[in-house]
Amino acid sequence: MTHQRAFSLVILFVSLVSFSVRAADWPQWRGPGGSGVAHEKGLPVTWSATENVRWKAALPGRGLSAPVIANGRVYVTACSGPDEERLHVLCFDEAGGKKLWERSFRATGTTLCHPKTNMAAPTPCTDGKHVYALFATQDLACLDAAGNLVWYRSLTGDYPTVGNNVGMASSPVLWKDLLLIAVENAGESFGVAIDKKTGKNRWRVARPRGINWVTPAVIEHGGRAEAVFQSGGDVTAYDAATGTSRWTFAGKGISTIPSPVYADGLLLVPGERFLALRPETSGEAPPQVWSSNKLPTGYASPVAYGGRVYTVSAKGVVNCADLATGKPLWSQRLEGAFAASPLAAGGKIYVVNEDGAATVLRAGARAEVLGGGEVGEKILASPVAANGALYLRSDGHLYCIAEKKGR
Amino acid sequence: MVRTCKPWAGFLALLLALPCNAGADAGPLLARIKAVGKEGAGNAAAAKAWKELTAQGPAVLPAVLAALDDAGPVAANYLRAAVEVITDRALAAGKPLPREQLEAFVGDTRHAGAGRRLAYDCLVRIDPKTPDRLLPGMLDDPGAELRRDAVAVVLAKAKALSDGKDTAAATAVYRKALQHARDRDQVQLIAKQLKALGAEVDLTKHFGYVTHWLVAGPFDNSGGAGFHNAYPPEKGVGPTAVYRGKDGKEVRWKELVATKPLGEVDFNAIFGELKGVTAYAFAAIESPAERPVELRATSNDAVRIYLNGKEVFAREEYHHGTRMDQHVGRGVLKAGRNEILVKVCQNEQTEEWTRQWHFQLRVCDALGGAVPLTVVTQGKKDTSPKR
Predict the structure, then answer these.
(1) Helix residue spans in B35-183 (DSSP H)
(2) Per-residue pLDDT for B89 more than 90?
(3) Given the DSSP bridges, would you call strands A217-221 and A224-230 parallel, antiparallel or unpaired?
(4) Across-strand partners of B305?
(5) Alpha carbon of B344 to those of B55, B221, B254, B280: distances in Å?
(6) Which is deepest, A342, B18, B243, B285, by most CB within 10 Å?
């Protein structure tokens, strides 16, 4: 065996050991790359409270957070108590839905929020070995897959003015060994990268003060990784490893609720006008490729899939446009109010309204409703998919929706 | 040189590396957990201690629970997870929990409510009848969570009586619940049920809201500067003082009796609907004894609260929503006269939903129960209902 070949095998081994999240897992807010796209086929097109339900697990309280799935485990957060001060992290067996463990913490930050949201608003993230659970109270817990506590941070305890009276919802994003978190609020506002092993800050940058629910995006291009933070007046990219500012796109009316998405070299920025920016490595503000007022977003982040971009308005209008040009393609009005972000998988777009009624649309140049389902519960959490199953989360239950023929 | 490694040697090394915990003292481990600091300081030491602690099994549960007595909020969450993990492992392995010690711990009110609640939860896991056995005796519990559950039992009984149309008995049981309830949702539910049964509850008095104030304003808050500027009232209140307020206008203290629900002081009704302004409210109270208190406030504006000249709370946030008791300042009342000063800043937003310029404030104990005091704002001891 040559040294080179031996070295290659070592690299392969290290890679297999290091990357515990399988390709079909769903490790964070909006899944792999924060895209909202699952590389799944065969997800159900119809379901009900009894049809195509592989398993259903009771939850101890409310949550807008979506589940994350890795290595056969499904993690989800919830909150309960008279002031939602009890913060829960739960772990279920992916195959059968058996609850493997539950940990309960007490909020260290304010629990005041708008009635629509709650303390389990941010979606956790996982590297397959650990789950990193952030709550609206800015409590951040790292637990291993067996439910052992590894470390705990109170960002409100660390920075006492952090918080707002509307509720915080930005989710942590895992990039390499860093947790990237946007803490933009009515008090001290910042973006922070926390070492996933130690729970200590690796870098921290000041961000505009103001209410903001946007989750950072990580874009990797030109050999660089940039953490993109978005506020009402700017989109700023920081070197993901060091926090050094790379570029800023200044604007007005940029959304502080839906998050940006990076696809096909374009950064899609929701707002009063939907923007498509093309980040470059020069350090200059990215040029605007197109903008549109035909892609309104309320609470839901967009999804780019198959050369098209899809948005869902708060009032239930699904819009589709050409990703490269922004040219509007179609519009489909659905019933109900929408908070959840859309999921793209298997040539379909899954959207769920606040009453829990889901619609499955064909992803393509024409609007076509293929099916849908209802479980009879209010749902504000975004649908996710992993390993052949669709997951829906209400305030009371976590549903694993899958065809009965099995995986 | 080629080194060989026998399989048993690795196994032996692993065994030696495992913690030997028989009879180990939990104290140093708990101390390391309680030493966690800001920004992740002490996390590594705490994590190692946590691992060693949980490996010791159920025998350390009483010590872990007792450690919650003086643990900070972050350390308390380390300890909560330790109790849950130790309990999970013991139950999964069929090992017994120290039931008698846990029950004794629950009953020992010298310990913090947080630890006693955790002990109670452990007991519930091994004996589902624990609530029936313990909760009836916990209506006056100093732990908020145990007390809440005890009140909930009484509320269920009252509802059953009410559903059975036994109005007199239901009213009596609801009144009993009101006497013990401290959580605002329970108190408000009881008041609603009593009202339906024909009995009114004065929630303003029950919660301990201060309703008699001297108010002064408007001072400037253009650009939010007023929140950071200490105007003359923050340097001492003289009821007859005359100040220069916003735009040089003369400002004097005015007496105000808040008649809105829960003692709401509405500055718009006093000074007009102004923007970019600051107002002060002052109350003097007499306490029969020195005691720790919480000054709990509600406001949709930026607020500072002072007790006897010392700031006990500050929050610069505008029009993001209100909830009863959203702001909590902690301090100590002296025996005799004490002074409360509240600063409320309105910003310059013009949307309809930014009109509120107001606050409510109550003085209570750590559980939320009104404390005995007399409001003497005007130097007259009869200006406010005695509690």
Answers:
(1) 43-55, 61-67, 73-92, 99-107, 113-126, 130-134, 144-163, 167-180
(2) yes
(3) antiparallel
(4) B313, B342
(5) 52, 10, 16, 6
(6) A342
Rounded Cα gap, residues B33 and B81, in angstroms: 12
Is B319 in contact with B349 (CB distance < 8 Å)? yes
Model ipTM over 0.85: yes
- Quote the radius of gyration of chain B (alpha carbons, Å): 27
In the DSSP assignment, the letter for residue B354 is: G
- Token pair 């946590």 is found at B50
Displacement of CA B267 from its chain's centroid (Å):
27
Q: Any idea which residue has 């964070």 for tokens?
A: A28
Under 8 Å between Cβ of A125 and A142: no
This prediction's pTM: 0.90
Do B40 and A199 make contact, defined as CB atoms within 8 angstroms? yes
Beta-carbon contacts below 8 Å between A and B: 102
Close Cβ partners of B297 (under 8 Å, ≥ 6 residues apart): B303, B305, B313, B325, B326, B327, B328, B329, B342, B359, B360, B361, B362
Q: Which of residues 350 through 389 in chain A touch B, CB cutoff 8 A? A: none
What share of chain B in percent tops pLDDT 90? 88
Q: What is the DSSP string of B191-213?
A: HHHHHHTT----HHHHHTB--EE
Residue A38 Cα to chain centre, angstroms: 12
Q: CB B73: neighbour CB atoms within 10 A? A: 18
User: Measured between CA atoms, how close is A52 to chain B, in angstroms?
Assistant: 32
pLDDT digits (tens, 9 = 90+) for B235-269: 988 888 999 999 999 999 999 999 999 999 999 99
> CB neighbours of B362 closer than 8 A, spacing ≥ 6?
B207, B208, B209, B210, B262, B263, B295, B296, B297, B325, B370
Q: Find where tokens 């937003």 sit.
A: B349
Q: Where is A4: in which H helix or E strand?
A: helix A3-18
| CB interface of B with A, residues 96-115, below 8 Å | 114
**For the segment B51-88, what is each residue's pLDDT rounded down to a tens digit?**
999 999 999 999 999 999 999 999 999 999 999 999 99
Task: State how far the Cα of A247 lies from the Cα of A38, in Å rounded to an integer.
Answer: 30
Render B199-267 in DSSP notation, one character per residue: ----HHHHHTB--EEEEEEEEE-GGGGGGTS--GGGG---TT-EEE-GGG-EEE-EEEE--SGGG-EEH
| A261-263 and A266-269 strand pairing | antiparallel
Asked if residue A258 has a cis previous peptide bond (ω within 30° of 0), the answer is no
Q: Give, rounded to a whole angstrom, the gap between the first and last alpha carbons of chain B.
A: 86
Min Cα distance B318 → chain A (Å) is 9
B51, B114, B321: residue with CB nearest A112? B321
Output the six-digit token pair for B359.
């606050």
DSSP β-bridge partners for residue A62: A79
Q: In angstroms, rounded to a whole number, what is the distance separating the alpha carbons of residues A323 and A305?
A: 8
Whether B124 and chain A come into contact, CB under 8 Å, resolves to: no
Question: ∠A140-A141-A147 over CA atoms, to 5°?
Answer: 160
Q: Under a CB-based contact definition with an 8 Å cutoff, are residues A143 and A104 in contact?
A: no
Interhelix angle B144-163/B167-180, rounded to 10 degrees, is 170
Using an 8 Å CB-CB cutoff, list chain A residues near B74.
108, 152-154, 157
Quick check: A165 and B88 CB within 8 A? no
Sign, CA dihedral B19-B25-B28-B29, equals positive
